[in-house]
Amino acid sequence: MNKREEFIVTYHLSFQLESVERSVELLLAEMTSGIQYYSKRDGVQMDRVQDTLPFVDESVMGEVRTLEQIDEDTYSVKFAFPVENLDAKLGGITNLWPMVAGEVFNFHFIKSAALIGLDLPDSFQKYYRGPGFGIEGVRDLVGVEKGPVFGSIIKPNLGLDPAQSARTVSILAEAGFNFIKDDEICVNPSLCPLKERVLSIAGTLNEYRQKSGRNVLYAANVTSDFSVLGKAAEIVVTAGAGGLMIDPFCTGMSAMDYLRRNFDLPIYAHRVGYGLFCSGTNFSIGYDVFTALFRMLGADFSHVGGIWGKSEASRRKTTSYVEILRKKSVHKRTWPVVTGISLENMADYYDFYGDDTLFMDHIDIYRDAESAKNKLQSLKEKLAAPQ
């Protein structure tokens, strides 16, 4: 008999009004067969549907796998529910989300909740394609066989039109950067429209490639309403960009899968907005959960955060994110991305993150282009990275 495939979800929970056992029982019911609500003058009463409707099919039911007390008020609870409750092809990750990240953050009997683990069955993971290029594929694109990859950000919102953006990119390419991306808040501003911006930048990088023989990868920001996401990506592809950038916390995670299935370009997943989900005191979702999902959904690049000025616990979390993106999996490996740094301290970061990392400088080029070029060349020599 084949082992039943299951979704495993782990929380840290504290409870109020109901007992621990009753609260856990109700939460499992909500994730599977459902709960009945009774609003009365003295409060809300909740009952499991299967307690009052005897025809509920037991095949939908999950189970409480573990229940362990962490401290005086908090419990680690692990639930399992059958893969048959969810169709990856019609529903998918978007249908999974209300099951594992829905009412658990809303029930009156839950005082605090942190979703800290999400283990997906093989059939569900394999439905999603993972990175189209991954670490090895991107290395082939930019011609960097070993060592880290260095990137920078163009910021049209500083006042750059398409021609000025292209000149900035030319400076970055000449300085030796391997990767360039749009700013996360810039898609199609009137000052620097998407199509014109990409055409100018792609043309500049094509000229540079013909002259130098070196390819610089440019990812354009296509973060848009889902109804026009495909249109934005078509504009970028037709205009000649080498990659697509998206803010999945803003578009919804399935938008990344849409890009992965329909456009054959590397995908850069920005994490702008993650703090809303991951930094709450009473309700939160561990960023490692999102890190794993982004890789599964097709991110070739994914943010992992910096380390300086952080606690030891934060450094351990960052290490976990990096391991999630690089570990052996059914999917290709994803580049960890480190931002918020400069060429001046990048070498220190390298000691922590290592070779298979995209280091993003977004300060030096706007200070002094010639100085930035010299700093990057010195940094590459110091790290013995290929030119």
Molecular structure report:
This protein is of the alpha/beta class and 387 residues long. The protein folds into two domains: 6-127, Alpha-Beta Plaits (2-Layer Sandwich), CATH 3.30.70; 134-383, Alpha-Beta Barrel (TIM Barrel), CATH 3.20.20.110. The protein is built from 16 helices and 15 strands. The strands form three sheets. The chain has an eight-stranded parallel beta barrel, surrounded by seven helices. A five-stranded mixed β-sheet has the order 4-5-1-6-12. Strands 2-3 form a two-stranded antiparallel sheet. The chain starts with 5 loop residues before the first strand and ends with a helix. The mean pLDDT is 90.
Features:
387 residues; alpha/beta; Alpha-Beta Plaits; 41% helix; 22% strand; elongated
Write a brief structural summary.
Helices cover 41% and strands 22% of the residues.
**Overall average pLDDT:** 90
The CATH topology annotation of the largest domain reads as TIM Barrel
Using the coordinates above, name the CATH class of the largest domain: Alpha Beta
- Name the strands of the widest sheet in spatial order: 7-8-9-10-11-13-14-15
Low-pLDDT stretches are none
User: What is the CA-atom radius of gyration, in angstroms?
Assistant: 24 Å
With helices defined by DSSP (H or I, 4 residues minimum), what is the helix count?
16
Give the DSSP E fraction (strand runs of 2 or more residues): 15-25%
Measured between the Cα atoms of the first and last residue, the distance is 56 Å
For the record, what is the CATH homologous superfamily label of the largest domain?
Ribulose bisphosphate carboxylase, large subunit, C-terminal domain
Number of strands: 15
Corresponding CATH architecture of the largest domain: Alpha-Beta Barrel
Q: What percent of residues adopt helix (DSSP H or I)?
A: 40-55%
Envelope shape: elongated
The count of domains is 2
Classify the secondary structure makeup into a structural class.
alpha/beta
